[in-house]
Amino acid sequence: MDSESQPYTYVPSGRFTGGHTMTLWTWARRRRFRRLPAPEARLFETAPGVRVLGHCHWQADRRAHPALIALHGLEGSSEAHYILGITEKAFAAGFNVVRLNQRNCGGTEHLSNTLYHSGLTEDPVAVIHELIGSEGIDRLVVAGYSLGGNLALKLAGDFGDGAPPQLRAVCAVSPVLDLEACVRALERPANALYQWNFVRNLKSRMRRKARLFPDRFPLEPLSRIRTVRQFDELYTAPHFGFAGATDYYHRASALRVADRIRVPALILTAANDPFVPPQPFHDPAITSNPHITVRISQHGGHCAFVGAPEDGDDGYWAERMIVRFARAHSGEAGRR
Length: 336
Known about the structure:
Layout: H1 19-28, E1 40-47, E2 50-57, E3 67-71, H2 81-92, E4 96-100, H3 122-133, E5 140-145, H4 147-159, E6 167-173, H5 179-186, H6 192-212, H7 228-240, H8 245-252, E7 265-270, H9 284-287, E8 292-297, H10 317-330
Parallel strand pairs: 3-4, 3-5, 5-6, 6-7, 7-8
Antiparallel strand pairs: 1-2, 2-4
C-alpha cells in the first residue's frame, strides 16, 4: 500500500515506552546493516571554500531511480545509526541515497573554515541542485532527524512556491522546528545528561577547529560554557551574524517558514520526546498547511520509535514510514 492508504500509527516495543528509556536505548544499541553496499565518498562544494562530505549509494542506473538525501542531527554524522537505517531501507526500496554530513561533521573540520548551525540549508540545497544538474536525478526526497529534520522542513519553506519540480517531498523525525522551545526543554534538570553530551561534543569540535584555524576560533570562551544556549551565544550566533542566541533560534527555526511549504511534508514526533516538546506541532503554520502531514505519537522518545519488526526489518518504525512516504511521492510505490 502507499502512504495515503495506511495510517501512520506507531506501536512501541513493549519494553521501551518511556521517552528517556527509548531515547537512551537507541543511542546505545549497536545495529548492523548487512544489506547496505559500500558507498562512494563524494565532496560537494556548497559555497566558496566550503566542501561537505556525502556518502553516496547509487543504484546501477542512477538516473532511472529517485534519490533520498539523509540529514543527521546535532553533532551526529553520516554514520549515525538512524541515517544508516534509513539508507538501508531506502536503497532496498529502489532509491539512490546520499548520506550527507553537516559542515565539520564526520571528521570534516578541515574542509571549511566555518561552523554549521540548525538552519543552514545552503549545503543541502546545493547538493539538491548538483544531483539534478550533474547526475540527472529527476526525483528527490530530503529526510532528516532532529536538527536535520528542521533543515528538511526549513529548506522546503525557504523554497516556497519556487521549489524545483524534482523535489518531491521532505520528511522530518523529531525535528527541532522551534529551536527556542527545544533549548528551553533541554535546560530542564531531567535533561542534564543530553545537555552535557551535546556541550561536550560541541567543545571538542571547537578545539579541533582551533587547531586547524587558530586565528579564527578563540578557545577562551569555552571555559564559561555549560549549556547549548551559552555555546550558541558565544560561538554560533556571532560567527553567522545573528544578534544573539535568541535571534539565531528565531531565524533558523523551520516553524517560521512552515506556512510556505508547498511540497508534501511528513513530520513524525513523540509527545514524550525529552527535549522536543509537542506544542509547536500544533501551531497554525503547521496544522493549517495542507501539504504537511503530522503524526504525534504518545511514545517514541527522541529519534527512536522502536517497534515490532515488519517484513524482515529491524523494527525502526520512523525509518519505515520515511521510505513509505518517499516512495508514494516519488513515483516508486507502484514499481515494487
